Amino acid sequence: MQLIDFSKIKVSCENCSLHELCLPRGLTAEELEKLDRVVKRTRPLQKGDMLFRSGEEFHSLYAVRSGCLKLYATSDLGEEQIIGFYLPGEIVGLDGMDNGRHSCTAVALETSSLCAFPYTHLTDICKRVPALNEQMFRIMGRELSQDNQLLLTITKKNADERIATFLLSLSMRFKRLGYSSSEYKLSMSRSDIGNYLGLTIETVSRGMSRFQKQKLIAIEGKFIRILDMGALRELCGAAAAGAKTEDNAASR
Amino acid sequence: MQLIDFSKIKVSCENCSLHELCLPRGLTAEELEKLDRVVKRTRPLQKGDMLFRSGEEFHSLYAVRSGCLKLYATSDLGEEQIIGFYLPGEIVGLDGMDNGRHSCTAVALETSSLCAFPYTHLTDICKRVPALNEQMFRIMGRELSQDNQLLLTITKKNADERIATFLLSLSMRFKRLGYSSSEYKLSMSRSDIGNYLGLTIETVSRGMSRFQKQKLIAIEGKFIRILDMGALRELCGAAAAGAKTEDNAASR
DNA sequence: CGTTACGTTGATAGGAATCAATGAGGGTGG
DNA sequence: CCACCCTCATTGATTCCTATCAACGTAACG
């Protein structure tokens, strides 16, 4: 028994506020309607709920409508590596497009609602709506670019720089969603942040404490207020800028 | 003036030996023909030549026919991060699908020949050939999975494990191509390997020397012979397996 | 045969992991 | 409603891995 029958809630892509950030971006009203016909809006996930897990059959892509999810890969040894965090308007599930099985696990970090796009239906529409197909390509391309960005961050930056980069990146994403860019709630734990950035929880905690001491940010548990955006931004790539100015093509 | 007019060389996807590893995988003869009509086979790249560079307009995907390329992203500070190495049958250029510009630079590590698939033509065909479209999705999905794998390797493994993982991964890829899996030539420098794995050149060199001392591999400059595949494989994930057996969900 | 890029090896130092202890919520059940 | 537990987070002390600095060896090339 459920108190709310979500199947009856009438939400269409067309009148969704995320419209221009999400999968339907750039589609005409007519094309949108086709997409709308296959979208499934399911019961919200509760914090900790899995959307899908590694190894499961891939059948849908999901657009986040509200909330936040983390996506992680699991190594042979059972270690987890968080690949990304997904905010409203972003698409989760691409990790299954390789071979028909999810290679990652997606977990809700807070109560989250999603739109499911069954893959077979989606590819069907793609055949008839080139704009959607290209949008799919773009979304996958963006995912790749983000992965590359993360790789750069992890291999080239030290702990503080990684943390600053992370905080700023979240800030920009919230801004894009119309929220405050200087004040937000971290829905992930310190441990998740560390895992994502290739650091331990202690290092993340120390880094954030240091930022607070330097009056770059204010921390209240999960709430972050950015006090000095400029300084934080400078920190993101400050290592080489400060120390070495410009040494050409150092191996790492 | 060129000694060989490559435009006259008649090679089709259909009779290409990489057929089943490459873009055309799974297409019917008829579909292949459509694809074949848009493929451009260009003059081979020489070692050091750039196929495209970051910021350039994206217009084609490329299949490697022979040789090897490296793909790297560049940070704001000019640091390079190698994203991947591309062997015959693999597709380079997906980094441009995000926003119409390449976010990475591709450089030949040795003389390499390529097939170019102009993007607009490719998407044209995709509209009419669903199998190709899905193949495109799969290829992008695979690229994503590989990125995730690399991330796991870099954040969760120590230097020796990363190097062992790299050597084995190459071994498997060569095997898939029909070459020896126990003996091959590294077309990339130690510095490239280090960059790719998030290590310095010295650490790579030391690791490989150690492997040689332990009789896991034999090194002759760029030539690698794998002497103890089993031990090497064990090394790939040995850290946790040896030391901690199974500690559940350590943050990193 | 000198020049240059690449690779190896050694010594040292530094940054982040690890170990350890304590503190702060947040939910549960008595 | 409070005491308890459990997870999450903070902070300190120590260790260890790998970067860095440095010197030398080697191969490729004109």
Strand order of the largest sheet of chain A: 1-8-3-6
Per CATH, the architecture of the largest domain in chain A is: Sandwich
Please identify which CATH superfamily of the largest domain in chain A we are dealing with.
Answer: Jelly Rolls
- Unreliable residue stretches of chain A: 239-251
Write the layout of secondary structure elements.
2 copies of one chain form a homodimer.
Chain A: H1 29-38, E1 40-41, E2 50-52, E3 60-66, E4 69-74, E5 80-86, E6 91-92, E7 104-108, E8 113-118, H2 119-128, H3 130-156, H4 159-176, E9 183-185, H5 190-197, H6 201-213, E10 217-220, E11 223-226, H7 229-236, H8 238-243
Antiparallel strand pairs in A: 1-8, 2-7, 3-6, 3-8, 4-5, 4-7, 9-11, 10-11
Chain A binds a DNA duplex (30 and 30 nucleotides) through α6.
Structure report:
Two copies of one chain form a homodimer. Chain A has helices spanning 29-38, 119-128, 130-156, 159-176, 190-197, 201-213, 229-236, 238-243, and strands spanning 40-41, 50-52, 60-66, 69-74, 80-86, 91-92, 104-108, 113-118, 183-185, 217-220, 223-226. In chain A, 40% of the residues lie in helices and 19% in strands. In chain A, a hairpin with a 5-residue loop joins β4 and β5. In chain A, the strands form three sheets. A four-stranded antiparallel beta sheet of chain A has the order 1-8-3-6. A four-stranded antiparallel beta sheet of chain A has the order 2-7-4-5. In chain A, strands 9-11-10 form a three-stranded antiparallel beta sheet. The first copy, chain A, is of the alpha+beta class and 252 residues long. At the A-B interface, β5, α2, α3 and α5 of A face β5, α2, α3, α5 and α8 of B. The structure holds a DNA duplex (30 and 30 nucleotides).
